[in-house]
Amino acid sequence: MSNILMVVSAADSLTMKDGSEHPTGFWAEELVEGHRTLMEAGHTVTFATPGGRRPTVDQVSLDPSQAGGEDRAAELRRYLDTLAPELEHPLALADVDPAGYVAVVIPGGHGPMTDLAFDPEMGRILVAANDAGLIIAPYCHGPAALLSAVTGDGSFAFAGRRLTVFTNEEELAGGTGENTPWMVADALAEKGAVVDAGPAWSSFVVRDGNLITGQNPQSSVATAAAVLSALDGDDEL
């Protein structure tokens, strides 16, 4: 089967509007469900992070109240334990050749707002992947990484493209609230992306050509499934 690149934030905190540091990282459900769906379909998934640093799981995402109960939290922990050797030694973004992959998948958590949104190597990978028509699939806060994709003439590579992302409503009600330093949805819209939104906390996926985006953690499986459909040549979600 095919090789898929999963880019994960290596950040462990987000600087808030008031200057305080908010512990963060990747959201467990998003990485686990994205990885599991792609692997069960027979694909190979390779992890990459800025600098090849080990990514940090957002501990809030493993709290039973957030994960969906004690059993679900324990199941997420077990799955992450099986991935520990790979997550301990991910590829560095600088060493990634997009030509070796058919898709670039980017789970969220607030971590991408700290590093992937501003990482020039992330931008290089995304621009090259987009130019080659590779599937690009960020979800929840993962679309923050798209902000790094600046072309040689200084334009935003995804201007005019339809996408979805964790909404302002979701951020204010169940994310980091009023102290959020910036809203990913607003930043993408300001760059020229066409931002769509579904009902809060419900699975919602948008496909615009090779760009597939999911709105929130609830969209993790559906986003990965849309990637599989696109790789199978299906033009519809």
TrEMBL record:
<dbReference type="InterPro" id="IPR002818">
    <property type="entry name" value="DJ-1/PfpI"/>
</dbReference>
<protein>
    <submittedName>
        <fullName>Molecular chaperone Hsp31 and glyoxalase 3</fullName>
    </submittedName>
</protein>
<dbReference type="InterPro" id="IPR050325">
    <property type="entry name" value="Prot/Nucl_acid_deglycase"/>
</dbReference>
<dbReference type="GO" id="GO:0005737">
    <property type="term" value="C:cytoplasm"/>
</dbReference>
<dbReference type="GO" id="GO:0019243">
    <property type="term" value="P:methylglyoxal catabolic process to D-lactate via S-lactoyl-glutathione"/>
</dbReference>
<dbReference type="Pfam" id="PF01965">
    <property type="entry name" value="DJ-1_PfpI"/>
</dbReference>
<dbReference type="GO" id="GO:0019172">
    <property type="term" value="F:glyoxalase III activity"/>
</dbReference>
<keyword id="KW-0456">Lyase</keyword>
<keyword id="KW-0346">Stress response</keyword>
<comment type="similarity">
    <text>Belongs to the peptidase C56 family. HSP31-like subfamily.</text>
</comment>
<dbReference type="InterPro" id="IPR029062">
    <property type="entry name" value="Class_I_gatase-like"/>
</dbReference>
<feature type="domain" description="DJ-1/PfpI">
    <location>
        <begin position="91"/>
        <end position="228"/>
    </location>
</feature>
